[in-house]
Amino acid sequence: MKNKVAIIILSLLVIICGVIIFTGVDGKSAYELACENGYEGTLEEWLASLKADNSSNQYNVTSGDNYNITVNTDQTVEEAAAAKALLSTVSVYSKFTISHTGTDIFGRPYETTSEATGAGAGVIYQLDKDRGDAFIITNYHVVHNADSTSSDGIAEELVIFLYGMEYNEYAISAEYVGGSSVYDIAVLRVNNSDVLRSSSAVAATIADSSEVSILQTAIVIGNPEALGLSATVGAINVDSEYIEMELSTGEKGQMRVMRVDAAVNEGNSGGGLYDKNGNLIGIVNAKIISSSVDNMGYAIPSNIAIGVAQSIIDYCYGTSNRSMYKCLIGITLVTDSSSCVYDTETGKVMIRETVAIENVTSGGLFDGKVQSGDIIKSIEIDGKIYEATRVFTVIDAMLNARVGSVVTINVVRSGENTSFSVTIPSSALTAVA
Predict the structure, then answer these.
(1) How far apart are CA 202 and CA 134, in angstroms?
(2) Buried-exposed string 29-42: b where 16+ CB fall within 10 A, e elsewhere
(3) Closest by alpha carbon to 112, among 98, 126, 132?
(4) Pseudo-torsion of CA 232, 238, 242, 248, nearest 10°?
(5) What DSSP assignment string belongs to 108-154?
(6) Are residues 265 and 391 in the same domain?
(7) Please, which of 45, 131, 265, 278 could form a disulfide with 81 given CB 3.0 to 4.6 Å?
């Protein structure tokens, strides 16, 4: 059984790509280390210099805990990035019991059941190699089926496979930790796996998706049609947009995504979208199917995916709860102005917005503090500052707030800089199923 595909309401059919995985790597790349030591050229220039200077025709791409890869310098940047990503990639298989109802030729109602298996993928988010434990991020629709006979629609059995080990003897059992259909993110847990413990698997290196720029390299690694892991390459076409999709629960929801032109097919769901350094910038979850559209795929930005996944781990793991929670602070935002900015150092064009407070909820956490019309410069959560360069950077940042977190909003009011802080109470939590 292939998983259902999302529908983007643009008069076009959008597929939730039901299968995929991949990831980045734990540690810094050799290029990043070279830059720290004073190298000022681009990655491509650095690779070219290695080809000219390295008589062994090899170089160390990255090093970290249980991770040390040598890549031939004849490889392209994309090949090197894919090599990193594959070590954090897993195939995901979900087993369901599906209920079928109808009426027979005499008009009598009947109900039957059958088994079905969905194929997907996931990204290793956290890994304890010594213990054989891992948390894995995938799409909610990979592990949920609205027609399942289970009370919550979640698969009765979940199995993952590491890259290059997709044989029955290497099957790894996983358990569902929790998820959100609204964000289309779910977290799986692997405990005490000998296969994982003795493998070359590593956790993904996470990149800041708010820094993604148009036409930067975008690498998709997945398991289209459940035929095995494969990689496609393209570019970021739109760094942030909102699409309306049909969720796995059958409801419609709006989701912020990045658009890519790398080939995405049914079976790519839950897999990663990577940059040219093999770092995770998104989780692939949908595509448009239309005779008039070519190569329009979508990925949930990594800043959203990681914020949601960590919330699931914090509020679900080790409890009976299965829903993520987020904190509501009682303000709504609006874009006061928007423009593009050309960075002469990087050569990139980035959209920059003036983020203003549109409304403050009466009785909310910031009631009597911030005001309508205040310009937000940044938001600080437990000491970490998030610049308000776009409306979504503030919204995404709040996914990192927990009960007890100190949230400070830095604003400009009548030309003066001022700050307001609150501590998040449990009453500010809301479940997002």
Answers:
(1) 10
(2) bbbbebeeeeeeee
(3) 98
(4) 0
(5) -EEEEEEEEEEEEEEEEEEEETTTTEEEEEE-HHHHB-TTBSSTT-B
(6) no
(7) 278
Residues 270 and 378 both lie in one domain: no
* The predicted structure's pLDDT at residue 45: 65
Residues 6+ apart with CB under 8 A from 37: none
Provide CB contacts within 8 A for 348, sequence distance 6+: 213, 342
Residues 239, 335: one domain? no
| 381-392 per-position pLDDT tens digit | 999 999 999 999
Tokens of 272: 């990663």
Distance between CA atoms of residues 127 and 353, nearest Å: 37
Same-domain pairing of 372 and 273: no
On whether the CB atoms of residues 379 and 360 are closer than 8 A, the answer is no
DSSP 8-class letter at 214: T
The CA distance from 77 to 334, in Å, is: 39
**Number of compact structural domains in the chain:** 2
Does residue 314 sit in the same domain as residue 330?
no
Assess whether 123 and 264 both reside in one domain. yes
Range of the domain at 13: 1-322
Query: How far from the centroid of its chain's Cα atoms is residue 318's Cα?
Result: 23
State the DSSP string of 354-407. Answer: EEEEEEE-TTSTTTTTS-TTPEEEEEEETTEEEE-SSHHHHHHHGGG--TT-EE
- What CA–CA distance (Å, rounded) separates 286 from 180? 16
Rounded distance, CA 80 to CA 278, Å?
A: 8
For residue 1, what is the domain's CATH number? 2.40.10.120
Of 252, 127, 271, which is closest to residue 193 (Cα–Cα)? 127
Distance, CA of 53 to CA of 100 (rounded, Å): 65
- Torsion angle, CA of 74/75/76/80, rounded to 10 degrees? -140
φ/ψ of 113, rounded to 5, equals: -130, 155
Residue 161 has pLDDT above 70, yes or no: yes
pLDDT in tens, 354-371: 999 999 999 999 999 999
User: Hey, is 5 helix, strand or coil?
Assistant: coil
218-238 mean pLDDT: 89
